[in-house]
Amino acid sequence: MSRMLHNLPVEAYTCKQWFDREQVNIFSKTWRFAGFMEDVSEPGQYITVQAGLNNIFIIMGRDRRLRAFHNICRHRGTQLIRAVGKTRKALTCPYHDWTYDLEGNLISVPDEDREFGQIDKTCLGLKPASVDIWKSMLFVHPDPDAGSIMDWFGHVDTRVGPHTPQELPEYEEARNTYEVRANWKIVVENYIDVYHLAHLHSGTLHMYDHARAEYGFVGPHYLFWEPPVPEYAEDQDRKLPAPRVIPKDENGTWVPMLFPGIGIGATEDGWNVFIIEPLAPDRTRITNRSRVANVSAWEFSRQSMRSAGFWSSFGIGGKYKADDAQPHNDPQSLGDPMTSGDFTAEDIYACEQQQKSLYSPYYEVGPAAKGECPVLDHQNIVLEWLERSK
Prior knowledge:
Blueprint: E1 4-5, E2 8-9, H1 11-14, H2 16-27, E3 32-36, E4 45-51, E5 54-60, E6 66-70, E7 84-86, E8 90-92, E9 99-101, E10 106-108, H3 112-116, E11 128-134, E12 137-141, H4 150-153, E13 176-180, H5 184-192, E14 214-218, E15 221-226, H6 230-233, E16 253-254, E17 257-258, E18 262-267, E19 270-280, E20 283-291, H7 297-314, H8 343-357, H9 373-387
Antiparallel strand pairs: 1-2, 3-12, 4-5, 4-7, 5-6, 6-11, 8-9, 9-10, 11-12, 13-20, 14-15, 15-16, 17-18, 18-19, 19-20
Helix pairs in contact: 5-8, 5-9
C-alpha cells in the first residue's frame, strides 16, 4: 500500500509523474503572477513568466495597452524574448529574424520571396494569452479567453487586508529569490499550517496572537488573519518597525495563500508577496517582493529609531540558543537556521527536513492537529484539480 501524507500519497511530493500532472492541470490552467504593474509601464517594455507548460510574456503596445502572448515564434517555435527588457518597435526571433510588432502581428520575414514565395502574414501572428491586473500585480493565463481575473479573485478581493498596494511603492532592497529543496505543496502546507506558528516560530513571530487566528478557505483560496498580542497592540504606532500603511483601527496581519501558490503577507507597516514556483518534484523557487509606505527615507529612519527600544526588550530570537546550534555539513548553509532569529530560515529548514524524510521507508504521518486542517483542505483541492482532467 502506498504511504499517505494524510490525503495525498507520498508520491505526490516525490514523483515526476505527479509533478507533470500538476503542471498540466493546475499551473497551466490558472492565473499566474508575473510581476508588479510598474514592471511593464511604457511601450515596448516586457516581462516573461512560466505558467505551467507555457512561457508567456506581457508587453505594452504603442497604444499603451497591455497584451500577453505565448513566447513562441510562429516559424519554428523558438522563444522570442528573454526574461525582461525593452524593445523600441518590434520583437525579432533570434533564430531566423522573423519579426513581430508590439501588438503581436507578423510584419517581416527575411528573404520571404526567395525562401517561401509568399506568406500570408495575417495568419501567423503571435498566439495570445490573457493578462490582467489585481491589487497592483500583473497576472497571465495561458487561455486567451480566460475572462476577468475578478472571476478568480473576486470572492476574496475584500478579505485579504485593508491595504491599497497600488498606492505603495516597492521596497527594492527587500526583493529576493531563493530555492527550497522541497516540493511546492510542502511549501504551501507550511505556509498555511496554523499549528506550527507558536512552535517553530516561538521566538520570531510572537508579536501576533496565534490562538486568536481566523482562517479558512473560500473556494480554492486560503484566508488568514490574526491580531497583535496586547503588548504589541498597545500604543502600536511607537512599536511598528516601519511607517503605518493601514488605518489604526484595523491592526493585525493578513496572510492568505491564493491558489496555486500566491502568498500575501500584509501587516500594519507593509505589504508583501510570496510567489511559489514549482521547478521539480523536490525543488521550488520563491520570489518575495514588498511594498511600503509612500513616505521619505527620513520617516523610515525616524520610525526605526522610535521602535528600537520596544524591539530590544520584546526580543526576536531563534527557537534555540546559539550554544545549542548543531553543526551543518551542507556547504550552502550559513549556520543553524534554528538559532538565526529569521522565520523564513526556520520555514525553509522545516520544509527541507520534511522532504528528506518522505523518501524513508519508515516514514509515517501522524494525526492532524486542528490547526493543520488547512493542510488537509489544500490537499483535497489539489486532488480536485487533478481529477478534472480524467
